[in-house]
Amino acid sequence: MHRSCYKGTLRKRAEDVAEAPARRYIPLMLDVPTLSIVLAPAPILKRPARAVRNEDYETVRALVPRMFATMYQAPGIGLAAPQVGVGLRVAVVDLKPEEKPSPIVLINPEVVATSTEMVTREEGCLSLPNQYAEVTRPARVKVRFFDLDGRSQEIEAEGLLSACLQHEIDHLNGILFIDYLSPLKRNIILRRLAKEQRQKQSR
Question: Sign of dihedral through CA atoms 84, 55, 175, 157?
Answer without folding.
Answer: negative
